[in-house]
Amino acid sequence: MKTEDQINVFLSQYDEQVFVLARKLREVLLANLPEIIEQLDIKAKMVAYCYGQRYADMICVIIPSKKGLKLGLNRGTELPDPMGMLEGKGKISRYVEIKSEEQVLSKALRALVLSTLELYKRN
User: Fold this and answer.
1) Range 90-112 burial, b when 16+ CB lie within 10 A, else e
2) Which of 69, 75, 86, 114 could lock onto 94 through a cystine, CB 3.0 to 4.6 A?
3) What is the pTM of this model?
4) 3-class state of residue 63 by DSSP
5) For the structural domain made of 3-122, what CATH number should be given?
6) Per-residue model confidence (pLDDT) at position 92
7) Which residues contact residue 12 at a Cβ distance below 8 angstroms, ignoring those fewer than 6 apart?
8) What does the domain layout of the chain look like in residue ranges?
9) What is the rounded CA–CA span in Å between residue 96 and residue 45?
10) Dihedral through CA 51, CA 55, CA 59, CA 61, nearest 10?
C-alpha cells in the first residue's frame, strides 16, 4: 500500500472534520515543503514531515486526535509568531490547533510552515 493510502486509512479513524482538515493540511504542507519526506508513525499517532531520519531533520507533524487536530512545529520556540498562533510549553516544539479550513489555508499558517523550513535550512 502506498504511503498516501496508508495515511488516508490512518486519518479515516478520526471524525470527519479531523479527517477533512488533516487532508487539507497535508496538501498545504506538501505544496510548500519541496521534496519533503512524509512518514506515517502509527505508534505515535502522527504523520511526520522531514528531510532525513534524524529528529533534527523533522520540520513538522500532523497530530490528529479525538479532540481535534494539531500541527506540531519542530523548533517552534525559535519561530516568529506575529499572529500568536503557536501554543505549547515544550522546550523545543510548539503546535497550532487547527480549527477550520480557512485557518489551514491562511497566510499566517503558511508563513509559519515556511519559517520552519527556513530555520531548518540555516542549520
Assistant:
1) eeebbbbebeeeebbeeeebebb
2) 86
3) 0.94
4) strand
5) 3.90.1150
6) 93
7) 19
8) 3-122
9) 17
10) 120
